[in-house]
Amino acid sequence: MCEIKKPKGKLGILIPGLGAVATTFIAGVMNVRKGLAKPIGSLTQMGTIRLGKRTENRSPSIKEFVPLAELDDLVFGGWDIFEDTVYEASLNAGVLSHEHLDPIRSELNAIRPMKAVFDKNYVKKLDGPNVKSGANKMELAELLREDMRCFKSDNDLDRLVLIWCASTEIFMKKSGVHETIESFEQGMRDNSPDISPSMVYAYAALMENVPFMNGAPNLTVDIPALAQLSIDRNVPIGGKDFKTGQTLMKTILAPGFKARLIGLNGWFSTNILGNRDGEVLDDPESFKTKEESKLGALEYILQPKLYPDLYKDLYHKVRINYYPPRGDNKEGWDNIDIFGWLGYPMQIKIDFLCRDSILAAPIVLDLALFTDLAHRSGMRGTQEWLSFYFKSPMCAPEIYPEHDLFIQLMKLKNTLRHLRGETLITHLGLEYYD
Question: What pTM did the predictor assign?
């Protein structure tokens, strides 16, 4: 059993990007706290965990099994390029109805965004007035660190976590400036174009010993310099890109195809969505970042090198189209060409009319609470056990990421069992030899 510090005092959740996802999360938690709604989709609030043999009938709720922060102890804040309060931003996002906003209007209006670190070169479709200025990126990082310290002090908080909910930045590749913390810090002082705003946030968080989780597909904390910094400072990190709509379906279906050894000729995916996310992804460079995140899951799950007769020639195409009338209600359409016994072809078609922020909000909550648990447990660096929540999960450089949703859930729950000194569930040992 690991020594876990108790979740005493209040936990601050800081969010860059107080848009549709963040405001839906904050308003949702406030509704749950008042007993006005249920936290549907949240593993930390509604999930259970089996312990020991099936004959023991021990399946406590996860929030009873591990010491998580209580919802009443959460305090919210963040940064945005627009000056709207969280209530105003919620209305603009159009995700939640007045039924869920009006009872908490005063609380939402009390949350005003701090000035953001933003550069239009990295998110070309957006611009706003609520932006910090500084001589270089290191100075901007220092301003963010001061924001974190003030937020913690002003709200009498015990600890913080930071969850990136801001827009997708342009596609970037690792470069020399990302290799060491020394080269990275010099790059910030030199205003290197290879250092994006999200990296500035990540650096500032790690220097303040604040865990950082990346909910977008940007190259951010998954660079050698920041990965090493998280280990040196004993801070958890993770990401990236919240697994919500179409990719969630892929990581549910593809493991089933592979388990039954059903072949795949092609998988065509297209999306239409509005809101700020759709507008940002209308830029080809931001779309490239998202495309890389969405394309990777199938290859890792299906392992075409191990199953060449089934998956070697799979044609996988992803499209994202900005369609303002749809707002946050994204539609993901998939055409899947499969083949079975003796090679006979079949088709599956999926039309997923989803609410993107409704699916993302419980992910933000779970990541905040589990990351805080990891920090209090002395865990540091990449938290691969939280891959369950990400489209493009980070992992150690010497291994490949796990994308199978069911294996991810097993890893998550086994990590919780390990933290509490319970036997890991492997089925073979427990069912046949105990």
Answer: 0.93
